[in-house]
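Ticket #4471: structure output looks truncated?

Reporter: J.K.
Steps to reproduce: submitted the chain below (201 residues) through the standard prediction queue, then opened the result file.
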Amino acid sequence: MAKYNQTTISRIELEESLVQHCNPMELNKVMSAFELSESVHEGQIRGDGSAYFYHCARVCKILLNEMGITDIDVLAAALLHDVIEDSPTLSISVLEYNFGRYVAYLVETLTKDLERREIEPDEVDKEHIELLKQSSSDCLLIKLAARLDNFRCLEFNLKRNPHRYIQETEELYIPLVENSDIPHLTYLVIELKKERNKFLG
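Returned output as attached by the reporter:
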């Protein structure tokens, strides 16, 4: 069995999972997001040595397979959530043209200015949290699903300082949704805490 950080969801698996839940145009939107994300992240490797695209695909997989989310815009944005940060040429306007305003909004909200973050990390993170506080619950779903996937990869040395990553998640991100009455967000908080306890022992 493949280690978790080497798992993904294939085009065929994604298509088969969605074909009963959406029309051909909607299905095409998700599959186009899959292909664009795969193309943008081609050749990019994460700290644990795995293909970067696997992370994006697994975030989509968590939402779809674990939580039963079949909202096409949410799944497309999950696949695309890091493309602006990782592409020197892609823009929000291009995403809006190809995937619609809501997908572009989700990706834009989830995108940090990484160049500025090198200089002002605390300020950029603070602004990001404030933006998330005012965002739709779908942004928080994708953000916490991405954090959950990263938690599950900590045992493979994904982060140079995993304890700090866990602490940051607990202090900044979990409080955004801890008192939410949205079951999907509650699920993500429970899973994050479960993975934290597993990693910390």
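Triage note (M.O.): checked the attachment and the full token line is present. The chain has one domain: 4-200.
Status: closed, working as intended.
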